[in-house]
Amino acid sequence: MKRIVVFGLLLCSARLLPALQMAVLPANLISGWARAGPPAEFLGRNLFNYIDGGAEIFLEFGFDRLLVQDYRKGNSEIVLELYQMESPESALGIYLMKCGVETPIEGVPARNSGDKTQFTILKGRAFIHINNPEGKESLLPVMVDLARALLKSIPQGEPVRLLDELPLEGRIPGSERLIRGPYALQSIFTFGEGDVFELQGKIFAVAADYRDQDGEPSTRLIISYPDELRAEAAFRNLLDNLDPYLKVIEKRDRAVVFEDYRQKIGTVERNASKLEIRLNLIARPSEALSFWPQILRKPAAVSGGTGLI
After folding, report:
1. C-alpha closest to that of 289 among 303, 275, 306, 305
2. Is the Cα torsion angle 291, 297, 298, 303 positive or negative in sign?
3. Parallel, antiparallel, or unpaired: how do β-strands 76-85 and 111-114 relate?
4. pLDDT < 70: residue spans in the chain
5. How far is CA 92 from CA 97, 119, 122, in A?
6. Which one, 31, 55, 83, 93, has the greatest CB density within 10 A?
7. Is the alpha carbon torsion for 189, 192, 197, 201 positive or negative?
8. Which residues, 6 or more positions from 58, have their beta carbon under 8 angstroms from its beta carbon?
9. Separation CA 177–CA 207 (nearest Å)
10. pLDDT given for residue 305 in this prediction
11. Model pTM?
């Protein structure tokens, strides 16, 4: 009897799934635009069948499902891609990676960036692309109409507070990033092969670019682990797998200073359950490490010594 009930529930769920999809994806748009057939669906690692070579970053951040729906009127086409991510944090991570310099589209009631060829939109745990393959500027009103209709049925979700860990002073607006593994980390810096910070697709790091009082740029990353043991293990794993092109010029129990191939200085410091990382530091007095009140030498002067006075 239980088997019959379970089978019946599964059958009902399978029958309800298309209806749920139709409720999310608008059926008709302005001026006679309508869906061209049913949506295509991609679950989990099947995403490779749609964006082969670009699916890794979605899976790293936490990907659940993609719905792809074509809308047509005559020979014109607009393509909607609705990525349902694991959480609002996952969706924000992808959005920050993909949006570029944000140029919001007027009339789209959610955080967005785009132009006549593509809208990139964030709401709750949804990451959305609306594509205009022909690039016709005349299709902009249709794209906005599609965005507005779709967004009505997507819950906002809880606000994401991860970026609050990054100091505001000196932060360059628009440079913020989330990291959840090696694919996202590569876009910022190469520390070594694999998941050197042991994020394991579960822990989020936050990053942003900064300018000091002299206008010099640098990058900061902060990783908060569940406890000090995890942070310590990640720090040791980093030291064991540090890329050989990074020259270690000072190392202590809870911190390391290195120089990259451009003779820029980087630091990693463990502070309780956090790793605090600074990159692209130049030669000037530095308070980057609480363990080192000393002054970093100019990169040109670093030659066989510790690099610290």
Report:
1. 275
2. negative
3. unpaired
4. 1-24, 283-309
5. 9, 15, 7
6. 93
7. positive
8. 47, 51, 83, 85, 94
9. 5
10. 36
11. 0.84
Tokens representing 120 are 């990139």
- Tell me if 262 sits within 8 A of 231, measured CB to CB: no
Beta carbons of 51 and 69 less than 8 angstroms apart: no
Rounded CA separation 203/180 (Å): 6
Tokens of 129: 């692309």
How far is the C-alpha of 174 from the C-alpha of 102, rounded, in Å? 7
Cα–Cα distances (Å) from 79 to 33, 43, 137, 144, 292, in that order, read: 12, 18, 15, 13, 54
| Nearest alpha carbon to residue 280 among 296, 303, 294, 292 | 296
Nearest of 48, 186, 175, 41 to residue 99 by alpha carbon: 175
Break the chain into its structural domains and give their ranges.
Answer: 25-151, 162-301
In this prediction, residue 24 carries a pLDDT of 67
Six token digits for residue 63: 């990907």
Tokens of 12: 């009902």
pLDDT of amino acid 290: 53
Condensed to tens digits (0 to 9), the pLDDT of residues 256-268 reads 999 999 999 999 9
196 is written with which tokens? 């050197």
- Give dist(CA 236, CA 245) in Å, integer: 18
Backbone angles phi, psi at 104, to 5 degrees: -60, 145
Chain position carrying tokens 């047509």: 72
